[in-house]
Design a protein that fits this description.
The structure holds two protein chains of two kinds. By secondary structure, chain A is mostly helical. Helix content of chain A is about 75%, strand content about 0%. Chain A folds into two domains: about 290 residues, no CATH class; about 230 residues, no CATH class. Chain A is built from 21 helices and two strands. In chain A, strands 1-2 form a two-stranded antiparallel ribbon. In chain A, helix 2 packs antiparallel against helix 3, helix 4 packs antiparallel against helix 5 and helix 13 runs antiparallel to helix 15. Chain A is globular and about 80 Å long. Chain A starts with 5 loop residues before the first helix and ends in a 23-residue tail after the last helix. By secondary structure, chain B is mostly helical. Chain B has a single domain, classed as Helix Hairpins (Orthogonal Bundle). The radius of gyration of chain B is 21 Å and the shape is elongated. The chains are: A mainly alpha, B mainly alpha.
Chain lengths: ~550, ~120
């Protein structure tokens, strides 16, 4: 039985959900039901897809029956299916979290126009899925635009001063990157006469080296901005923290990773010669080091996490830059790990904000005693991010370092060292947050303790202890009052999936490894696309050797 | 494909003007810059196709040259997208003006304040 009909469902489901929720914008309960149903069904569809893809090779669908180089092609290989499953898990959890937060905040009123949240969120998911299955550059561009426009709306939700200020740089930078991407597409089309990825991969090797370098540079810059690679990463830590917690969480989890996905796709499929590898390695190193140094110096948890987000993009880029099969596999596993962990951390910080009323480190304290459950929910992904064995962050980093050592170049060794250093500094940054927000006694200046500017000097130890106990009791009361079940449940689910990535590391790393393998062997993808309808046009495939038994859509 | 110097210069000029305007803090200038640069990209897309031949009408006879319709399809898509994006940008510029009485984007707040503290709670 052919399962290819599932392929467009992963896009049709969320986009129709968006339309329905927009129609039902005055009926919050209907909206909630629709979006949760749609995303759950989408997750099921993608789970079926990933089993099919790992068994039968890439799924290919030519929309409207126009075959490969001409029409719009949707392709799901292992990498795309894997990314889709992980991202939909995250979207579902964030959706539940957002709904629960929205219901709890209903009395807050005009600040959260929740009727817009559902359609926009579903459009964002549409863009993300579409980017993963896009089989041509232009469709990839359109999906970027879909998700970017949705992200603009989500980031400036409520239109407050602070959110507009923080959102404006993000919006301008994103628009610029889209323009660069579209210029890249125009040049690719001018040079080759096609935008289909599979077709391009056979035509680009025939081009002069200078033109190839131009095309590659344009595409890498466009995707590098979206992925927040170092010289182009300054927009991220400024814009993400001001958004509502669920929005920050889903952005941190998904948006930059779509950029990384695009880099992986383009580097492996279109430019497999490994050119720009050295530059990418240097960019990866700079991203890691500069990002983590920024993280250390932050006074707020959300900004600190945004900097670690930038920093850890460097690891994924490192794997891609190596270009070897082991490097790619490790990068793919690391992407999945990082999506889950970073989302979990931002969700947990959203809970911190609810409990303590702030995420500024100086005013936090005593959370471990006051909200033990929350402490666990923060601690596990925090250690995971820092790469403490045996968690998945450790496994991903070991995979990357192994690939780096295999590579053998001096620069690769430097990157391994840089990666290890970044890992230690991440541990330092995260322990600093843990120590201040959770572990130390409640500072007497916490807002819950009354006047935030009161100093402690001159007070006796006894008074301080009493104040501390009182503050802690107050915090504990507030935790039960302020933490809705759905938010805690969603965060727990994401943390649990993150742990599953460790527990079931064997099979999951296996999927990542096969994905890396089929990326290194381009013919799998190319043949699946070009042979799915009619045989490839003669003369258009100079290098591709037809591999028997790929069974596209079989 | 033939290259056209006038078109290349126009594209370059539009790009330069667009990027210059996008560097401004004034949101209206940013929008104008985005539109100009968008036109530059659209023209670039236009030049990527075959030029100087008739559009597709009916069926092409043997050996007859017809214009490539794909760049035009891509330009149309890009125009529609930039319409949606500019709508959003105008709404944002207006909202920013209502908030601050100033077409420019504000300075960052003091580090301690914007260190994500109360950012989540909207204070208008």
């Amino acid at each position: 039985m052919s399962w290819t009909w599932l392929l467009p469902l992963s896009i049709i489901l969320p986009i129709s959900g968006a339309a329905l929720t927009l129609v039902a914008s005055r009926r919050p309960r209907v909206q909630r039901t629709i979006s949760v149903t749609v995303v759950s069904v989408q997750l099921l569809v993608e789970l079926v897809m990933i089993t099919q893809v790992t068994r039968n090779g890439p799924m290919v669908m030519h929309i409207g029956g126009w075959t490969a180089p001409l029409g719009i092609t949707l392709v799901a290989d292992e990498l795309a299916a894997f990314m889709m499953v992980v991202s939909t898990v995250v979207s579902l959890a964030v959706l539940v979290y957002g709904i629960s937060q929205g219901m709890a905040d209903r009395e807050v009123g005009p600040e959260v126009p929740i009727s817009i949240f559902h359609p926009t969120f579903l459009i964002l998911i549409t863009g993300v899925s579409n980017a993963f299955v896009a089989g041509d550059l232009f469709n990839l561009f359109v999906s970027f635009e879909i998700l970017l426009t949705a992200s603009f709306v989500l980031l400036t939700t409520g239109g407050t001063r602070e959110r507009l200020r923080a959102g404006a740089p993000y919006i301008v930078v994103s628009l610029l990157s889209s323009l660069i991407f579209l210029s890249g597409i125009a040049m690719v089309y001018a040079a080759t006469g096609t935008v289909n990825l599979a077709d391009l991969s056979t035509k680009i090797p025939a081009l002069p080296a200078g033109i190839v370098a131009t095309l590659q540079a344009l595409l890498l810059v466009a995707f590098g901005i979206k992925a927040a690679v170092f010289p182009m990463s300054a927009w991220l830590p400024d814009s993400y923290p001001s958004a509502p917690a669920p929005v920050t969480a889903v952005f941190a989890g998904l948006l930059t990773k779509v950029g990384i996905y695009a880099i992986i796709r383009v580097q492996t499929l279109l430019f497999p010669t490994g050119s720009f590898g050295t530059l990418l390695m240097i960019a990866a190193l700079a991203t890691m080091i500069v990002g983590i140094l920024g993280a250390i110096s932050q006074s707020g948890i959300k900004r600190m996490l945004s900097f670690t987000l930038v920093s850890h993009i460097g690891y994924m880029l490192f794997g891609v830059a190596l270009g070897s099969q082991t490097g790619l596999s490790a990068a793919i596993y690391y992407v999945a790990h990082h999506i889950l962990v970073q989302t979990a951390l931002f969700l947990a910080v959203g809970l911190v904000e609810r409990v303590a009323g702030t995420t500024v480190l100086a005013r936090l304290g005593g959370l471990a005693g006051a909200a033990p459950m929350l402490a666990v929910l923060f601690f596990i992904p925090a250690m995971n991010l820092a790469g403490v064995p045996p968690l998945s962050g450790f496994l991903g980093k070991v995979g990357l370092f192994e690939a780096g050592v295999q590579d053998g170049r001096v620069l690769a060794y430097v990157l391994v060292a840089g990666g290890a250093l970044t890992s230690l500094l991440t541990l330092y940054a995260i322990i600093r947050v843990w120590g201040r927000a959770f572990w130390r006694p409640v500072p007497e200046s916490t807002p819950v303790g009354g006047d935030p500017l009161e100093t402690e000097s001159g007070r006796s130890l006894l008074t301080r202890r009493r104040v501390h106990r009182e503050a802690q009791r107050r915090l504990a009361r507030q935790e039960t009052a302020r933490l809705p079940m759905g938010m805690v449940g969603a965060t727990t689910a994401i943390v649990a999936v993150g742990v599953l990535l460790t527990v079931a590391a064997g099979p999951i790393y296996g999927v990542a490894a096969t994905a890396g393998e089929s990326l290194s062997d381009r013919s799998v993808y190319v043949d699946a696309v070009l042979d799915a309808g009619v045989p490839a046009p003669p003369g258009a495939t100079p290098g591709a050797v037809p591999a028997p038994g790929t069974g596209a859509g079989g | 494909m033939t290259t056209n110097l006038a078109l290349a210069l126009t594209i370059g000029g539009l790009f330069a003007a667009g990027v210059y305007l996008m560097l401004s803090r004034n949101l209206i200038r940013v929008i104008l810059g985005f539109l100009l640069a968008g036109h530059a990209v659209n023209l670039l897309l236009l030049t990527s196709g075959k030029s100087g031949v008739p559009p597709i009408v009916g069926e092409a006879q043997n050996g007859e040259q017809v214009a490539d319709p794909l760049p035009q399809a891509m330009i149309l898509t890009a125009i529609v997208i930039s319409l949606a994006v500019s709508t959003f940008l105008f709404a944002m510029a207006y909202r920013n003006y209502r908030n601050t009485r100033d077409p420019e984007i504000e300075d960052e707040l003091e580090p301690d304040e914007f260190a994500d503290a109360e950012a989540g709670a909207g204070e208008e």
